[in-house]
Design goal:
The complex is a heterotrimer of chains A (297), B (353) and C (328). Chain A has 11 helices and no strands. Chain A is mainly α. Chain A has a single domain, classed as MetI-like fold, CATH 1.10.3720.10. The longest helix of chain A has 37 residues. The N terminus of chain A is likely disordered. Chain B has 2 domains: 250 residues, 3-Layer(aba) Sandwich (Rossmann fold); 76 residues, no CATH class. The relative contact order of chain B is 0.15. In chain B, 29% of the residues lie in helices and 23% in strands. Chain C is of the alpha/beta class and 328 residues long. Chain C contains 11 helices and 12 strands. In chain C, α4 crosses α5 and α6 packs parallel to α7. Chain C is globular and about 70 Å long. The relative contact order of chain C is 0.14. The N terminus of chain C is likely disordered. The chains are: A mainly alpha (297), B alpha/beta (353), C alpha/beta (328). Chains in contact: A-B, A-C, B-C.
């Protein structure tokens, strides 16, 4: 059969420009109530991080040998760790560092990796070969070793930690971005763009990027958790954030030692990571749907 | 949608006297679920298929020609998505009432079907030989070796050169025309009575199309086969059809022996279709396009479904559904148009639901 | 029309166009093969003329179309548009000329960006080329949409809200918006149902007359070509086999391939059935075309010379030409 010609065009016109995108976003979010949940959770976590000094019940680095490894109680809602520090307060303060490191490194990785993947997929030929071979080499390093190398070369600081983690996700984003780019490149409308004299940059940004973004966003939300885990590992071996400063990853790592005696040490920061990833996932799904015009009905 | 089999108001044009009818379809109606409501994609389709005959179902996309064949082959999804009513008598049994296991025994054995895109119908990782023999293993219980030997014979039958070597090759090593030959070989493996061919040559180049049509024609005669050829191309119809049913919006609007249909197209849609084809053999002057487009199945107009696009439509056409009735003085030529065929004035009892 | 093709300087002149693709196969591109998709193709298109390019799949007709617009870089040959060789132009200098040459594709489902509204798709070329923006651009879009038979309100909708025929109208609007002089129509009506195909053909013919547009009309359908074109070139395995004015080339074909093609093309007339040759072979692979005349293995009139020597191009009377030893 040839293409169906059933015409189901609605009769309403719509406005144009940015307000419409927001309106579409709103409609998609309303259609998929879970996106709202994701947004609320994510904003909640961000606010908790920002207002940590107001919300915390204790000083996050204040040690107290007498109160070490206490289970959750009235005075310490989520218990205390091996130095007697309040877990709840440490999670709040840790949110600041973990959110910044997790989101910034993924954002950096997404921009660099996505750009490389689109460039490789769109140009093909030797450009593709060169970029993807480098990516494959990067990908062949275990994530932790990779991060370790970068931090070892650049020195331990928060910015370098972000760069190191971004480095580990760049090849993944490049791979993810390249496949849909190649599929879209073959479509006639890209050829029409070239016939209309558009620059390659314009074609990649305006016409290819939106096709790639949906998939990338969903995976970015997942990999944020990985980023936080890498941060934890690097912190653990002393290449991340220095010990007294609380980070979620660091807390989970430290808690491992006492996992049988004091499970709350790992479980609560773990839940915090889970909550963040969950919220980002729901958000990512909603954003992906909002970008697809076929789902905007 | 109520329907009465063999209802007088929904006749298939009878080829009176010719009793060698292989398949007799009456009141075939297939409705699809669209957001909780069932809409008929095929409505009150009736025809008789004779032995060793080529019947062409012709129409534009969305006219229901493929759905008709899939309904008869019982290849449509289950009752929640789609409902089929009416009757289709084949060898003393009603295909539409048959149990699924009984239908499975018939399908691929006595009723076969081939499709437009042979690449997607073949498994890319199995050699051709294994696939061509498969129906014989399944339906006849042949051993692998016997099936392989039979497959060789079948590839020879569909005139694939160097068949013994080709048997061990994979689908991607075959051209489009050769793949369609393979599909035909598979479809004919169990010597079916009826072959449904859904746009079998549409994806092929014209010179290859001519070869495949010739092959189908030869095989039909050699094997006393009945062929239901579904196509959008009236040129193909003119070349191979014995009888033609023109479909529009799920209904047969005109049915006649091929030469009479082309000599005297009587339904306004058939006429318009013929006038909108640019021809390679002579200058047609100005083309006449049909304005508008086929209505979607959930927004079918009341009355005659072609009326909104029809240049000769009268007020009455918009109200009453015309019947597919034989033209006065020409029992083999049926037309569903009250303006051109007084006998088609109304579907009477059946009406539209 | 023919006179102007012969006498007046053609708006587009193609000379010795050649495109070789290199294919690498196997591990690390171990096996290399080359495929000559277009082999020494020459023709000219006059202003206001519709020039047809017919042939079966793999004959190279679409590659020619893409080489004309430099969507594919030709390997050799000249593509002169108003005397300027497009094939030799640097990319920067080519960009302004792209306004003058546009393309319409076969598949209206893949030729429009599904994520952009019709309006966005149509405004973008105006902005990129600095032709118009804001209000003026929107007015131009409305005018073009009206011209192709759509309501101006279509600008606010997405491609998936339209039927195939309507999408093809949008694709035509996109090709028209920069007011080109020549449009390459690559199987532009082939994916459409006959009644819709007739609508689009009428639209194209109307646009051609109204704007004096030239067309390179690529199609496998002889009927469509006969209806739309003034002159035709028939291609087989990358080479031109015959060119000539339209009614003549189909009524009295000179090259046996043109004849085969015509006889195999179905027409809606039982008295004129397609000639169903039982076995005249497959189209050979373009990676390994037969020596001599590419058509000789399938040619009913093949002679010994055809198997060894490629026929030279012969110019014949009546504005016709053929590459066949029968007419050499």
């Amino acid at each position: 059969m040839t293409a169906p010609t059933l015409d189901t065009a609605p009769d309403t016109g719509r406005g144009t420009g940015a307000p419409r995108f927001l309106a579409d976003l709103l409609r998609v979010f309303n259609a998929n109530k879970l996106s709202w949940l994701g947004l609320v959770l994510f904003v909640g976590l961000c606010l908790a991080a920002v207002f940590a000094p107001l919300l915390a019940t204790h000083d996050p680095i204040d040690q107290s040998i007498l109160y070490r490894l206490r289970p959750p109680s009235d005075s310490h809602w989520l218990g205390t760790d091996s130095y007697g520090r309040d877990v709840f307060s440490r999670i709040l303060y840790g949110a600041r560092i973990s959110l910044i490191i997790g989101l910034a490194s993924i954002a950096l990785g997404l921009v660099v990796g996505g750009a490389l993947g689109i460039l490789a997929g769109y140009r093909g030929g030797w450009v593709d070969q060169a970029i993807m071979r480098v990516m494959d080499v990067l990908l062949s390093f275990p994530t932790l070793i990779m991060g370790l190398l970068v931090v070892a070369m650049l020195g331990a600081s928060m910015l370098n930690l972000i760069i190191a983690i971004a480095f580990t996700v760049v090849p993944k984003f490049a791979r993810i971005a390249r496949a849909p780019t190649i599929a879209v490149r073959e479509r006639d409308y890209i050829e029409a763009c070239r016939a209309l004299g558009y620059s390659d940059l314009r074609i990649m940004v305006v016409h290819i990027l939106p096709n790639v973004l949906g998939e990338i966003l969903v995976l970015a939300s997942l990999w944020t958790a990985t980023a936080i885990r890498i941060e934890a590992s690097l912190s653990f071996i002393g290449l991340g954030v220095a010990p007294p400063t609380p980070t979620w990853g660091g807390m989970i790592r430290e808690g491992f030692e006492y996992i049988l005696d004091a499970p709350w040490l790992s479980i609560y920061p773990g839940l915090a990571v889970l909550l963040l990833v969950f919220s980002l996932n729901l958000l990512g799904d909603g954003l992906r749907d909002a970008i697809d015009p076929k789902l905007r009905e | 949608m109520p329907s009465t089999p063999n209802s007088a108001s929904d006749p298939a044009p009878d080829n009176a006297g010719v009793s060698d009818t292989v398949l007799s379809v009456r009141g075939l109606t297939t409705a699809f679920n669209r957001r909780g409501h069932f809409h008929a994609a095929v409505r009150h389709v009736g025809f008789d298929l004779q032995r060793n005959e080529t019947l062409c179902l012709v129409g534009e996309s969305g006219c229901g020609k493929s759905v008709t064949a899939l309904s008869l082959m019982r290849l449509l999804p289950g009752r929640r998505q789609c409902r089929v009513s009416g009757s289709a008598w084949f060898d003393g049994q009603d295909l539409l009432a048959l149990s699924e296991p009984a239908m499975t025994r018939l399908r691929g054995a006595r009723l076969s079907m081939i499709f437009q895109e042979p690449m997607t119908s073949l498994n890319p990782v199995l050699p051709i030989g294994a696939q061509v023999g498969e129906p014989l293993v399944f339906h006849r219980g042949l051993s692998r070796q016997e099936a392989e030997r039979e497959a060789l014979r079948l590839l020879d039958l569909v005139k694939i050169p160097d068949a013994a070597r080709r048997l061990r090759q994979f689908p991607h090593q075959f051209s489009g025309g050769m793949r369609q030959r393979v599909m035909i070989a598979m479809a004919l493996a169990c010597r079916p009575d009826i072959l449904f061919a859904d746009e079998p040559t549409t994806a092929l180049d014209v010179t290859i199309q001519a070869q495949v049509l010739a092959l189908l024609n030869d095989l039909r005669q050699e094997r006393n086969l009945s062929l239901v050829l579904i196509t959008h191309d009236l040129g193909v119809v003119a070349s191979v059809a014995d009888r033609v049913a023109v479909m529009y919006a799920g209904e047969i609007v005109e049915q006649a022996p091929a030469d009479r249909l082309f000599a005297r197209p009587s339904h306004p849609y058939t006429e318009a279709l013929l006038r909108s084809i640019p021809r390679s053999d002579r200058d047609v002057g100005e083309l006449r396009a049909i304005s508008g487009q086929v209505p979607p199945i959930h927004r079918m107009p009341a009355g005659c479904r072609y009326a909104p696009r029809c240049p000769v439509a009268e007020a009455a056409c918009l109200d009453a559904t015309p019947a597919l009735a034989p033209l006065p003085g020409d029992p083999a030529h049926a037309v569903r148009c009250r303006v051109r065929n007084p006998a088609a004035a109304s579907e009477g009892r059946i009406g539209h639901a | 029309m023919l006179e102007c093709a012969d006498s007046a300087a053609p708006i587009l002149e193609v000379q010795g166009l050649r495109k070789v693709f290199s294919i690498t196969r196997g591990f690390m591109g171990g096996q290399r093969a080359s495929l000559t998709a277009v082999d020494d193709v020459s023709f000219g298109v006059a202003a206001g003329e519709a020039f047809g390019l017919v042939g079966e799949s793999g004959c190279g007709k679409s590659t020619v179309g893409r080489c004309l617009l430099r969507l594919i870089e030709p390997t050799a040959g000249r593509v002169r548009y108003r005397g300027q060789d497009l094939a030799a132009l640097p990319a920067q200098a080519l960009r302004p000329l792209r306004r003058k040459l546009q393309i319409v594709f076969q598949d209206p489902y893949s030729s429009l960006n599904p994520r952009r509204t019709v309006g966005q798709t149509l405004v973008e070329p105006l902005r990129v080329h600095g032709v118009a923006k804001g209000r003026a651009a929107r007015d131009r879009v409305a005018a073009v949409l009206t011209e192709v038979g759509l309501a101006p309100e279509a600008a606010d909708r997405f491609p998936h809200e339209f039927s195939g025929g309507q999408r093809q109208r949008i694709a035509i609007a996109r090709a028209l918006i920069l007011e080109p002089e020549l449009i390459v129509a690559d199987e532009a009506v082939s994916a459409l149902d006959v009644s819709i195909q007739a609508q689009i053909l009428l639209l194209l013919k109307d646009l051609k007359a109204r704007h004096g547009l030239s067309f390179v009309f690529i199609s496998h359908d002889l009927g469509v070509v006969r209806y739309f074109c003034h002159r035709v070139a028939v291609m087989y395995l990358g080479r031109l086999v015959e060119t000539g004015p339209v009614p003549a080339i189909f009524d009295t074909p000179l090259h046996p391939y043109t004849e085969t093609l015509r006889n195999a093309s179905p027409v809606p007339d039982p008295a004129n059935k397609v000639t169903m040759r039982r076995l005249d072979g497959e189209v050979p692979s373009p990676t390994a075309p037969p020596p001599g005349c590419h058509f000789h293995p399938r040619c009913p009139k093949a002679m010994d010379v055809c198997r060894t020597t490629p026929p030279a191009w012969t110019t014949l009377s009546g504005g016709r030409g053929a590459a066949c030893h029968l007419h050499g």
